[in-house]
């Protein structure tokens, strides 16, 4: 972050310290409390929806003068907020190409296969979400992966009870995986730039904890599935679970072949009535010729076996009553034999030339598609490398790099594949972007009440990061704060003050920043609103599978798993952070 942003942050702190407005404190707190249930719970009896609820909350903050109209433009235009929106827009566009080119579909087939048992799917979903999140952020991972997984889920017509564990696996694993790298989520990048944490220090302290946390999360997911199945069996008497039997596997195995045969039959039917007049005349001539040959054969058979009429025509050998028609047939055959070979020759040469042109076009198209696929992989790897470069060497922005990658990929797609760029831009999920815009203003309205700062100021003397009690109190504050108004706003609020949490002397080294990064990231798994990635999964589940991830449904798993993972791995982060400080 630049110096100007630091100055603004300090100015806002002074405002909270000395110029707290009683009207803003009361009104902002009331509006936050009124809107919060609609953002979190997604109530069926009042189907406002999370994106609309966030926008309503922002509008109410402006209407009641908690936030001024000019403040809205300043809030939306801040680097951190624009960075988040640029990141989402860029990854939405890139995800369209990943989907269209079949990159992630290959991964989906490896995960789901053909009606694999649910227990063999879950650990793969968790691992994929964590790995992707460590490279392309947790928000972008949930944005890309959730629709693909749920679409494959619907295609296989799996049991609906699997949807909740599936969504929980995507969201929680993405948050855990994002804790391993600086560019895994926005708050990590913000902490690294403000607290002076290098990439190597972050890896040393956070990567072992992330691996241990992911292992614990996978085990807890399986335990959750086991308990959920037991509860559903006791409630419904019998739970029908789609486990692939031998017959199902055989059907699944040959399903692709059946589809290919059906497709070929459809193609064959399409050629029965060709559009080309020349081809149509040739085909009709061939069919007429074959039909007359068959008639002639049947007549010969009648002659051999003897017909009802014993009078035969001399020239044709057919019954006298059929002589006239036979003569007409012979005349027509003579005419066809004179004209048909030329037309067939001309038609076949025309068809050969057309087929050659089609083959050439297919080859060129295949070459262009391969070049574009190589470009897409290259841009993705380059984006990851640029984001991994420490800020002390070069400042590659977490928002601009993905957006630039998507723009140049869109340009290459137009050049190579002749695809209309508009088809890509309509894939942007603007409801998610609008939800973010509303959250930024609504949460800033609550921050302007100064209550979070006041609470932190009173607890700061007891949050000594060199004592066990201080670390535990600090973790409780971060967990609660992250789930009241999300982890990114909390980090922005307190990151400049963690250097004063070491007693009388200021904190030295990256320990405070590393602890804040771990706790705030994993605390996002506590409730549905704890992380924006959770909200993205919930929105995509509703739009892709018409499934609602409820606040209580998420909390049942998120509450125990978050506490266990944070406090089991916290000593690892603490002692590895002390080790990293010496490097």
TrEMBL record:
Membrane-protein topology: Multi-pass membrane protein
Residue span, Citrate transporter-like domain: 46-523
Entries under InterPro entries matching the protein: Cit_transptr-like_dom (IPR004680)
Localization per Swiss-Prot or TrEMBL: Cell membrane
Keywords: Cell membrane, Membrane, Transmembrane, Transmembrane helix, Transport
Transmembrane segments: 21-39, 51-68, 80-98, 121-151, 163-183, 203-225, 371-390, 428-446, 471-495, 515-537, 557-581
PANTHER family according to UniProt: TRANSPORTER ARSB-RELATED
Name of the protein in its database record: Citrate transporter-like domain-containing protein
Species classification: Eukaryota, Metazoa, Porifera, Demospongiae, Heteroscleromorpha
GO cellular component term of the entry, any: plasma membrane
Any single Pfam family the record assigns to this protein: CitMHS
GO biological process, one term: transmembrane transport
Keyword hit for Nucleotide-binding: no
Main location: membrane
